[in-house]
Class I mannose-6-phosphate isomerase (Sphingobacterium paramultivorum), 584 residues
Amino acid sequence: MYSNTQTKPFQYEIAPTFPVQGTLSNSYPNLVAHLITHNIHSIDGFVGVNWGTIIPNLKQEFERQGVAARFIAMDSALKSESAIQDIVSPYLGGNDPLFGKKAGIQLIEYFDTEKLADFQSILANSDSKQGKYTIFYGPGASLVDTSSQLMYIDLPKNVLIQRMRAGKALNLGCSTQTNQKETYKRYYFVDWEILNRHKRSILSRVEILADQQSSHSLPWITGKDLRDTLQTMSQNYFRVRPTFEPGVWGGQWMKEHLTGIDQDVKNYAWSFEMIVPENGILLEADGHILEISFDQLMFQESANVLGHAQQRFDVEFPIRFNFLDTFDGGNLSIQCHPSPAYAKAEFGENFTQDESYYIVDRKEDAQVYLGFQQTIDADKFRSALEESFHSGIAMDIEQYVQKFESKKHQLYLIPHGTVHSSGVNNLVLEISATPYNYTFKMYDWVRPDLDGKPRPLNIDRAFANLNFSRKGDVVKNTLLAQPSEKVLDAQTTRIHLPTHEDHFYDVFRYEFDQDVSIETQGQCHIMMLVEGEAIELTTANGMKRVFHYAETFAVPAAAGSYTLRNLGNGKAKVIQSFVKESKC
């Protein structure tokens, strides 16, 4: 339905919500009453939470309710900043501007054991019955009392990144920010790893969970209602809140088509449709909205969500969907991704960044760079790349890399080690393994980044991973998915877009006029309507939800089965991806 020439925006929900199985509150009086009733003395939370907007409101409300409360910040029990730096430095990649290694540190290692013991003594000697109430707050507060119920204040990672860019969030245990790239690198490889493990270990003890991304409100939910909601979600469907990022090669398709998107940004290069390490899930009840980080769903319900694949991936969600927009923009860098062994050894990742490009929309001149020319000489290619980098003079990349016409609804396969790039004037749905940071750029068209500085290249890392056997006709024969059709009934066709043997996920497309019923067969299905207006999902458990063109959603394995009903006038086309059975 949506042709190359359409410019009219269509309906796209940028803040999708899931109904809470219970209630949400935005009341400080009710919150404090709940804290007191449940004798909660620990308010734990994620890095980046602005405690300065929370603690004064809590103090004021405790006073109103006749309780003298004492609030003790956990950061006063941290080891010195230099001691913490010594602990984390092995994971920061030295002078590498982009890459480190995922940290195997426990949060308790950040704390001075004597100071933590003092806190435990203070808590043991506090007497709430005499009107005295002690609360420890900040990341690690639950370490003071390791068995009681607690409150947790969450912060979705994309919100944390926004605060970092505004200079309002620091790394855990740091008093200053060096630069944004270093701060983000430490978040990704250290802070998130440590705090996610900590959150997982205490989630069953959470009696209250709150969302602190607003300075004006603190929506919260009880632990029971949160757990009931996550269980219901894990048996029906979910859609994360998408986020959007500009880039040096970014385009205009998303700006022109997606309703509600910020029009003041120069371009949009990426849409994080479902890149779950950074996405959050919005919960709604009675006009209140609370956002949780996606990992909470996995920490509680990974078996329901992943089904057969849970044994392999544990609480890591394996597949991501994201848009790459180059409409009236630029080419992506010429790049590749690491092998599984390299990703594990160098970065601590359990699996690597195997990708594929599905073309959702294009202009007539759009191209995809994929694989090497038959005559590729690795040494000459490397010399040309290095000469271009040092001289700042553009090179003729097509001497070395093949270029294919971009075709709508074609799937281009990019297993690890494959040289590739999207050319100008594509809207690419990138279907990939979840890791998303490990792009080794070899050539970037001699252009600066948005900040005017040269973009870092990773020629050494690329050449440690490039597969030079993917060249000539091998590319045409193995990296362009060859569709096979199966007619399901008079109005439904299922098209298999087989992926490469290195991909652990598979891709199908359902095309139907009216409706189609699908069984999960013990796998989580990640989907997007790539042609049509809207579809209505009905799960076997009876939940219904409408999804519009270009919206990504998932049906967990535990849903069992579901029906998609076409709400548009033309044929609906739905892309579906899931983990291959043989790779679990």
Observations:
- Residues 180-202 form the longest helix (23 residues).
- The longest strand covers residues 355-362.
- Residues 1-6 have pLDDT under 50 and may be disordered.
- Residues 484-583 form a domain with the Jelly Rolls fold (CATH 2.60.120.10).
